């Protein structure tokens, strides 16, 4: 027996022009308007989340990042103290 997915309802007031546009687009794709809108909203949400979680670097930034990984700078006294504090905090947990 397949598991049933829970659902939630979403309502929105839109202009009649937008409604007509959505209806036409759904008809072009041979979908119901609900299916078209849900799919479009899901795609937009996924793009927004991916845009927020992906870091994009210029070529120069990529090279600087790779160089820092391959040849990290020497630890300064402040960095050594920070690592020591971090280690102490992790042992305390």
TrEMBL record:
Cross-referenced SUPFAM superfamilies: Ribbon-helix-helix (SSF47598)
GO biological process, one term: regulation of DNA-templated transcription
Alphabetic keyword roster: Toxin-antitoxin system
Protein family per UniProt: Belongs to the TacA antitoxin family.
Protein name, per record: DUF1778 domain-containing protein
């Amino acid at each position: 027996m397949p598991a049933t997915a829970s659902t939630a309802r979403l309502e929105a007031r839109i202009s009649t022009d937008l409604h007509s546009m959505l209806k036409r687009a759904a008809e072009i794709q041979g979908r119901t308007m609900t299916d078209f809108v849900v799919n479009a909203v899901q795609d937009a949400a996924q793009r927004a989340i991916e845009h927020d979680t992906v870091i994009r670097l210029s070529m120069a930034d990529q090279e600087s990042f790779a160089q820092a990984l391959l040849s990290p700078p020497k630890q300064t006294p402040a960095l050594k103290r920070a690592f020591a504090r971090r280690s102490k905090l992790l042992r305390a947990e």
